[in-house]
Structure prediction request, 294 residues.
Amino acid sequence: MTSAPRLAYTVPLPDGSTLELGARPLVMGILNVTPDSFADANNRLTDVARAVDVALRMQAAGADIIDVGGESTRPGAEPVPADEELARVLPVLDALRGRLRIPVSIDTYKAVVARAGVTAGAAIVNDVSGGQDAGMARAVAETGAALVLMHARGSSRTMYAGAVYRDVLAEVTAELEASLRRATEAGVPLHRIIIDPGVGFAKQASHSYGVLAHLPELASALRRPVLVGPSRKSFLVDALAGRPATERDWGTAAAIAAAVLGGAHIVRVHAVAEMVQVVRVAEEIRRHHERAKG
Prediction:
């Protein structure tokens, strides 16, 4: 893979603004307000004021979206009750309202959390289950939020049991098509939906690398903007000689560069300042290659 074209999309947001996707890759900064984040063991943001400060610093470093999550979805993680998840995210969303110039997304697979999160100011729902909660699409449709549908199988506790593929690209594409169909049938307009192939979710390392290598085919088949989130994930471990999550940013940078060259519209990252630089350089390479082809 050298580079791939990136189609332009306009995604409406609840406040009447739009998310313009295609001119350049956007950077989504991860704001985990959980006590057990796998990738932020030394920087767990359970204090509202500290979380707001980190979000503001991410914006200053070049983030285009802040993704607020109140439940860890690392492999093996125990589910968190909705009321506990709400207690973690709502104070942060409330505190961020009016403080940011960029949109906020709520990272959840629960419809009740999504609905409350949008009411509290989130403009995007980032559903890592691909719509497994039957009420999620209805909640998104009624709030007018944009929706990220990620490919996944099972829950955090069981995802690796489903990491069996004959053709990972074909199966991920087909399952995302099914998620898109369920969402649109429940009332979410197609133009509000972004897809995520779910790097690291219900996939062995070879499957995640395969998805990254074939992003152009995935985007072409589904005709929706693509979000990619490889940041610090376990599929990088073998290539990085077993380094822990907090020491995987160089490997993450390579995966982010590949995603940009593959035509990703949004990349989701922990280390915003560093990955903004990676995105900008990779995008210049992609643009030069596209100009040369044209």
